């Protein structure tokens, strides 16, 4: 048995609900750390940052599923919907922390969105993700048919905006943010290359989630 077979066999044993439960509890754990003083002198900012990074990692993980299967043979397709739904949940909590714990004043929210370009870009990413989250149920997948797959291409500008948002948060060119962006550009570049060369490695075509 090869290493890839081992990974695939092991991953098949993990029920998808385990991922949902772990993912649902993660922000709660971060919130607990912030509330109990384990996140340093600026817990709200630290919480915002941790949640933002978590959301971006989850977005990237979702984007990794297809190349992982095509290039390495590692099949995580059955986790893809959970990864997508959890990503939206992480971004929503990230946004809520900003609204409820950071800005707080209703009249300041719109001002912040318009005046701070990194917030504008983050909000753009959130808005692009929203239709994906709404249509992540079986009914929408059936109802939309091939349009569902087309709609889900919105994930590409979403992750790009997420990466740009991270770069813009820093006052200088932060190495961390640039590294995330390099990974994002590589993953998007891989897809462009796939389309250009028409070398669709995924055979048979990926089934729609059931
Ligand atoms: C796909 C959507 C989003 C992603 C992937 C994302 C990701 C991130 C990342 C990676 C960071 C930086 C973490 C660090 O510095 O360690 C961050 C910071 C932040 N984000 Fe987002 N974000 C998104 C949407 C939003 C939205 C919608 C808002 C609010 C409207 C927002 C507000 C903030 C704030 C206030 C910070 C902290 C800035 C600071 O350090 O002072 N983000 N986000």
UniProtKB/TrEMBL annotation:
Subcellular location, record wording: Cell membrane; Membrane
Annotated membrane topology: Multi-pass membrane protein
BP term (GO), one: protein repair
Record flagged with keyword Protease: no
Gene Ontology MF: a single term: oxidoreductase activity, acting on diphenols and related substances as donors
Main location: membrane
Regions crossing the membrane: 16-34, 54-71, 83-101, 113-134, 154-171, 177-196
Family: Belongs to the MsrQ family.
Annotated NCBIfam families: PRK05419.1-5
Name used for this protein in its record: Protein-methionine-sulfoxide reductase heme-binding subunit MsrQ
Protein source organism: Aliiroseovarius sediminilitoris
The gene coding this protein: msrQ
